[in-house]
Amino acid sequence: MQKLNVLIVSTEQSKYIEQIKGSKYLNKLYVTSEEEIPDTLRLRFNTFKELAQKCRTLQIDIVLVEEEKWILEGIANVMKQYFVNCFAVTTKWAELGLSHNYARKMLSEYKINIPPIINLPVEFPVLVKGDGILKIANSMQEIISIKEKIYNTSGEVAKNVFLEKYLKGNKYKIISIYDGKHLLTFPHRNIRKDLLDDYSIKLEKMLIDGKADFTGFINSELIEENGILYNTGFSFEFMLPDFEACDMTCPKDIFYICISTIYQKLNEIEFN
Predict the structure, then answer these.
(1) Do 217 and 190 have their domain in common?
(2) How many Å apart are CA 231 and CA 239, to the nearest integer?
(3) Do residues 148 and 46 both lie within one domain?
(4) pLDDT beyond 80 at 272
(5) N or C: which terminal CB in the chain sees fewer CB atoms within 10 Å?
(6) Does the pLDDT at position 158 exceed 90?
(7) CATH code at 25?
(8) Do 123 and 99 lie in a common domain?
(9) Whole-prediction pTM value?
(10) How far from the centroid of its chain's Cα atoms is residue 42's Cα?
(11) Do 148 and 185 share a structural domain?
């Protein structure tokens, strides 16, 4: 495999910097953070368009985005316009993390378990959710107070607020990567394989049926209660998988995974 020029987009030093620098596939490593990092080259930019143009000029092969706010602001959309391999979701799919109502609708359609909505609470705590809203309420008075604050801020947002059951169980953050045709979900050492496999199959179908137009990471926040795995949210920043938990039939190297993603060959990667 060719040596790669890689850019890590973040405001601070990447927490994965040492693992990334240790890859045998790495040629040059560029960063956007202001910190002095040995063996890296700093890349400054004012707009995503400027960054994309610099990536083209410097022949950067892979862009990993750790700054989720920039993903939500559409960095992947701009990079796609300039044919830069940016591993991040586009704004359409970022909506899964921005809107609880949109995510519930999509997940329900593909029979992915989500916490039930509560019309009249009989036990507490409960979650108060809406677009950009996630609060825990421990009484009816707290629910009323939270809803009043939301209404006073935005009556439009208040219309879509709902109550959700507060689940108690083991919580997980699961990393998946999508190549446009296949979804690869990395094993988690503490989760039942059959539950995770079933979830991954359904999530992949949702992305394929929805003609997902991104290449990159989609991280699921899950909770297991009474043997049922529920999705409680999404995030999209680059996260390095726990390769120690992965018994893989290929190199345990993030850039091997990235190249497989670019060439839409994630289906060839297997876990034993």
Answers:
(1) yes
(2) 18
(3) no
(4) no
(5) C
(6) no
(7) 3.40.50.20
(8) no
(9) 0.93
(10) 25
(11) no
The enclosing domain of 184 has a CATH number of 3.30.470.20
Parent domain of 131: 117-165
Question: What is the number of structural domains in the chain?
Answer: 3
pLDDT digits 0-9 by tens, 7-49:
999 999 999 999 999 999 999 999 999 888 999 999 999 999 9
